[in-house]
Design goal:
14 helices; binds ligand EPZ; disordered C terminus; 23 strands; four-stranded mixed sheet; UDP-n-acetylglucosamine1-carboxyvinyl-transferase, Chain
């Protein structure tokens, strides 16, 4: 049974929010530990569910994982298996990244297909085509994929579509193959750049990460190293939208503005001021009067991130006129629309386009989270909705956000988590009975 978040709105945020390490940077770096028998050290790993799932998966293969606060040490000296347990692999798409590293280091590997998820079909055909180009035989019949290292060699491979984990998967596999690999039409995300830096520190020669063409001169003897995980730009972006939505002022401590230029341009377009200080990014929307309608088209980095589309839609419900979202990456990524409508939003959906008519006052009710970023959108809606908002299925949120209720409470939100397993309730300081409302927790 999943926890529940309960919010009382409307509220105005003011204060500092510490930004955690990026889940989508930590996951590929954890997988890269498979490429060397030496220990690797990751500092600033975020304590989120996806990271714990990957730890369980790696340990099930025989990887030694030691955690000391946010410092994780992983060592794949001797493995007990190269077949990823299906129940673990199905929980998280990033588990598919283990296929190539296991295959290049140990000669073969087997992983079940990552299922589709709430945001749509999640094919891996480009991952498999790239592994074949590197010299693996790929047996992809049935529900699982099995690869064998035949004659591994450097290759030239062009991605038919820009894929983040596809780029990460092939870059880290090629890093352990002697020879030169040229990857074209690559993803340019900061998480790809960090992985390349990590692999370079391990001894691979990699050029072009952050551009569309990456050249990898691999080494069959990669060594251990240590790296600090970059801050989570999607967590930071989520709280930046919250600051503007509530017309508050928030310092996103540790966030890196260069990872969020497109979003910050959108928020400045709403009349907020966005400044970079030594402490992080300061988003000040206290002088914002009316929001302005806007159009967001999601694109691969550095375009508008698909992972912030749902959050931006919440802001659109408060802008007078017609706003629009065009979701070019995951056309089905609109599970949040039905729940926003139940809170009072007026949204017309003709995938991959959503048209938002505003402003519509949002009112608290019971809503259900469905995927990681749709859950974040509902939290933002609960911050500005009048009355009590109850969000169920909060385990979706916990996959990618660290202690969201604590971080928001510290900057003025009235929010608490009810742990449905124990039935206990984490109290909001100063909360009397009924200040969170008495909605039946369905
Ligand atoms: C990564 O997913 C992120 N996950 C996602 O974040 C993010 O939304 C996505 O990139 C896009 O930015 C991690 O990094 C762990 P893709 P990924 O491969 O790599 C198609 C979150 O909320 N495609 O870049 O799985 C695919 O269908 C998560 O943290 C193929 O057709 O996404 C999509 O249309 C959600 N064949 C497009 O490419 C393939 O073999 C981009 O997907 C691979 C992808």
């Amino acid at each position: 049974m999943s926890d529940v978040l309960v919010l009382e709105g409307p509220s105005t945020l003011g204060g500092t929010i510490p930004i955690a390490g990026a889940k989508n940077a930590a996951l590929p770096c954890m997988v890269a530990a498979l490429l060397t028998p030496d220990p690797v050290e990751l500092e600033g790993v975020p304590p989120v569910q996806d990271v714990f799932t990957l730890r369980e998966l790696l340990m099930s293969l025989g990887v030694d994982v030691r955690v000391d606060g946010s410092r994780w040490t992983l060592q794949a000296e001797r493995l007990t298996s190269t077949t990823v347990p299906p129940d673990l692999a199905r929980r998280m798409r990033a588990s598919f990244l283990t296929l190539g590293p296991l295959g290049v280091r140990f000669g073969s590997a087997e992983v079940v297909y990552p299922g589709g998820c709430a945001i749509g079909e999640r094919p891996v055909d480009l991952h498999l085509a790239g592994l074949e180009a590197l010299g693996f035989t790929v047996d992809s019949g049935g529900a699982r994929v099995r690869i064998q290292a035949r004659r591994l060699r450097g290759a030239v491979f062009e991605f038919a579509k820009v894929t983040v984990t596809g780029t990460e998967h092939l870059m880290m596999t090629a890093a352990a193959i002697s020879g030169t690999t040229v990857l074209r039409n690559c993803a340019r995300e900061p998480e790809v750049v960090q992985l390349a830096e990590f692999l370079r520190q391990m001894g691979a020669d990699i050029e072009g990460a952050g551009t569309a063409q990456i050249v990898v001169r691999g080494s069959s003897s990669l060594r251990g190293t240590a790296i600090r995980i970059i801050p989570d730009r999607i967590e930071a972006g989520t709280y930046a939208v919250a600051a503007v939505l509530t017309r508050g002022r928030v310092v996103l401590r540790g966030a890196r503005a260069e990872h969020l230029t497109t979003l910050m341009e959108c928020l400045a377009g709403q009349g907020a001021t966005v400044q970079t200080t030594t402490e992080g990014i300061v988003v000040d929307a206290r002088a914002v009067t009316d929001f302005r309608p806007l159009r967001v088209v999601t694109e691969p980095y550095p375009g508008f991130p698909t992972d912030l589309q749902a959050q931006m839609m919440t802001l659109m419900t408060q802008a007078p006129g017609v706003s629009e979202v065009v979701e070019t990456i995951f056309p089905d990524r609109f599970n949040h629309v039905a729940e926003l409508r139940r809170m009072g939003a007026h949204i017309e959906l003709a995938k991959p386009v959503a048209r938002v008519y505003g402003p519509t006052p949002l009112r608290g009710t019971v809503v259900a989270a469905s995927d990681l970023r749709a859950s974040a959108c509902l939290v933002l809606a609960g911050l500005i909705a009048r009355g009590t908002t109850v969000i169920t299925n909060v385990h979706h949120l916990d996959r990618g956000y660290v202690r969201v209720e604590e971080k928001l409470r510290r900057v003025g939100a009235t929010i608490c988590r009810i742990e449905r397993v124990s039935g206990s309730r984490s109290r909001v300081p100063g909360e009397g009975e009924g200040t969170i409302g008495n909605l039946p927790l369905g």
